[in-house]
Amino acid sequence: MAIDRRRFLALAGALGLAPGAALAALPEDGGALYLSARKRGGRDEAVLLDEAGRDRLVLPMPARGHSFAIDPAARRAVVFGRQPGFFALAFSLDGEGEPQALPLHEARHFFGHGAYLDGGSLLAATENDFEAGRGVLGLYDASAGGGYRRIGEFDTGGIGPHEVVLMPDGKTLCVANGGILTHPDYGKLELNLDTMRPSLAYIDAASGALLEKEELAPELHRLSIRHLALAADGAVWFGCQYMGPAADRPALVGRHRRGSRLELFEGPAQALREMRNYVGSVAVDAAGAVVATSSPVGGQVIYWDAASGRCLGTTALADGCGVAPAAGEGFLLSSGLGAMLRVDAAGEPRRAVLAPSRELSWDNHFRRAAAGA
Question: Which of 61, 232, 286, 357 reaches 20 to 30 Å from 39, CA-CA?
């Protein structure tokens, strides 16, 4: 695995060629702020932007990005490279200082997601222990002066952990173990489709103890649980990607409450069919009452009532994947074709924020970062 270590060091070194040069924070007007990774004019960037789609901060990246860990109280974030990711960059939302590359164990790679915990003093990142074929949460010292040094790891109780969220109690981490075994020598090739065991795992954030784990029914063992969002009542909503026959139509959206079984929601047959067995992102609105799930391959976003699981509506958006809660009600949506759209809680378009562009491609995730000054 020496080649992977060299690759990581090369990426980290590339970031130091012009430290801080491309960070250009703009004055704020008090509105909500958002984070996304994108490709613009052939360059990979992480960007902080407002609801009008205006750039507030631009951070160059050595490769394609995926999602973010966000610490709104300290106005900082970490962007993770897309799976298999060999870089993660910590930076200030105010553009202060230089971005900092996180160290990475030579036999690990990032899965694209992370979460701050313990009041922001620690960062947990989903990672692949690819030689042992197990999922871990890498732990990084995010305290003042900690330098994001890697201080250990927790086992996730499964394979292929993707998204991780901190539960409302501030003491428990919920991890989506996708169940897919991969190795960076083979890119994203799935190595264990016949033996997948996707699960939601709840982990004590202080000790790493596995508190609870829920698996899907055996007949759904190829339904990879990938993305998570928390509703106002503390329920975990999740989105899945089905690795079985293309003609199958399993439910792709689910909900879990601690101590109960996993629930799955199909929605209307046409909407389920048009998702094409793929959910790319999950978000809840500002009130935590409406859940949005996107399918970029299906070109649509579906909305669900968080209390009942009832489907509320859909929005057609070609290559639409990024979803974030808008100020007030509704959502902001982003597309791999460069478009950005504001919709209400039932998915009815309110206004186009950005038109499609050949020079701009938004990546999978769109995250609300802060409420503004």
Answer: 286
> Using 50, 70 and 90 to split pLDDT, how confident is the model at 328?
confident
pLDDT digits (tens, 9 = 90+) for 134-153: 999 999 999 999 999 999 99
Alpha carbons 202 and 165: distance in angstroms, whole number: 10
The domains of the chain are located at: 2-370
Q: SS3 helix, strand, coil % of the chain, rounded to 5?
A: 10, 45, 45
- pLDDT tens string 75-122: 999 999 999 999 999 999 999 999 999 999 999 999 999 999 999 999
State the Cα torsion 245-251-257-258 to the nearest 10°: -20
Q: Which fold has domain 2-370?
A: Methylamine Dehydrogenase; Chain H (2.130.10)
Contact 298, 316 (CB under 8 A): no
CA distance 74 to 149: 18
- DSSP secondary-structure letter at 269? H
Question: How far is the C-alpha of 344 from the C-alpha of 315, rounded, in Å?
Answer: 10
